[in-house]
Amino acid sequence: MTPDRKTPRPRATNPQDGDHLRTALELAAAGVPVLPLREGKVPFGNCRTCAKNACGGRPNMKSAGPCHCPGFCHAWAAATTDPEVITSRAWVAAWRQAVCVGYHPGGAGLTVVDLDNAAAVAWAHETLPVTRTVATTRGEHWIYRGVMPSHNAVRSGVDIKSLMSYARWLGPGTGTMATLPPAVLALVVKEETTPAPGEVVSSLPERATWERTVATGCRHTEQYIRTGLERGLAMVRARTESGAASQAFGVARFLGAQHAQCPGPCGLDAIGSQIVAAAVFVGVPEDYAHRAVANGLQAAERGAA
Predict the structure, then answer these.
(1) Which of 27, 44, 45 is nearest to 86 (CA)?
(2) Within 10 Å of residue 31's Cβ, how many Cβ atoms?
(3) Which pLDDT belongs to residue 294?
């Protein structure tokens, strides 16, 4: 599935040909965990032992459990590359009823940006780096190398499928796969609106502010750092209607990138703390703010690597 490896490129699955098992085995051989999808293009239900998660869940789920059910229970968590499991009696019976093949993007080291309509596709062309694309019934899948949390409805017509999620196999697609970009990571930081000041969801204790004493290894002048930080904080505080968390992500990424070549330390923790406080001031829930800033600083670090 990655452009760096010469792996088989299974053909697109045709629900009419009953060849889902063969496609699944080809994908598994390429390192892509697979699972059967039933009518409605959804996973098969749990067996009686695993019903309502009574078994405790599979060890690879968010809350690790003891379940080692040989069946296809627990949806995406059942996805596997083991040919003995894929061709077992229970799985073969499921393949006969399956309408298509599903796969676990996160298990293959991938993220799928699921664009569900023409407007979403147009937005992606304007906003996201070009990567491998796969046509879907109503839109496109844009596939990136790298994993992240899965989220639905990060914006109108756009879902993120990666960790703890499954996607339909619709063929290998076209184009060269790109590395997961910060623009996609930023999509998981989502708030419908930013509550007005005074209606802050979180109550922050007093936070540390950046001081030169915590940036003994920074190559920039104090004025340069303070000027950039204040401009960034002003941009976050200006987002009183919506988008403050996304703005916080962008400011953190930009300021973090400025220090990528410094021998350090540069006091980025204190800078991040001030960005979080600015976002919370205009109403962003504190957990969103922390996530946005952390993702922004991490994106800056990855970009410098």
Answers:
(1) 27
(2) 14
(3) 87
Beta-carbon-side half-sphere exposure of residue 53 (alpha carbons within 13 Å): 12
- Give the residue-averaged pLDDT of 33-48: 91
Q: What DSSP letter does each residue of 229-246 carry, written as one string? A: HHHHHHHHHT--SS-HHH
Identify the helix (H) or strand (E) that includes residue 113. strand 110-115
pLDDT in tens, 124-181: 999 999 999 999 999 999 999 998 888 888 888 899 999 889 999 999 999 999 999 8
Backbone torsion region of residue 54, taken as left when φ is above 0, otherwise alpha when ψ lies between -120 and 50, otherwise beta: alpha
- Which pTM does this prediction carry? 0.61
Peptide bond between residue 105 and the one before it cis (omega within 30 degrees of 0): no
CB 115 within 8 A of CB 139: yes
Q: Which two tokens stand for residue 201?
A: 């969801």
- The gap from C-alpha 202 to its chain's centroid, in whole angstroms, comes to 25
